[in-house]
Amino acid sequence: MEAATANNVPHIEGECGGCLSCATCHVFVDPQWFEKTGEIDDIEDTMLEMTDVEREDNSRLSCQIVASQALDGLILYVPEPE
Ligand code: FES
Predict the structure, then answer these.
(1) Residue 46, pLDDT score
(2) pLDDT reading at 82 higher than 90
(3) DSSP string for 41-79
(4) How far, in Å, is the centroid of ligand 1 from the Cα of 59?
(5) CA 82, CA 74: separation in Å to the nearest integer?
(6) CATH T-level topology, domain 2-77
(7) Percent of the chain with pLDDT over 90
(8) Cβ(4) – ligand 1 distance below 6 Å
């Protein structure tokens, strides 16, 4: 989320600054990368039901993905609101 907002990626707002209360940082993770992005905790799971674009199996809130060398090359897709 921080990388996206710093680079003005459209549709990634990050309104809550990453404290899991807005769901404006929703992304779809490339399936080959999904497991590497870590576990979805209960709060994120609940917030993923409140996204503008409907949740899919590979949805994450990008503020909960911790950048690391292991994620070098991570592919994320930004949902397009209708
Ligand atoms: S920035 Fe608000 S939930 Fe991710």
Answers:
(1) 98
(2) no
(3) -HHHHHHGGG-SSPP-TTEEEGGGPPP-GGGTT--EE--
(4) 13
(5) 25
(6) Ubiquitin-like (UB roll) (3.10.20)
(7) 98
(8) no
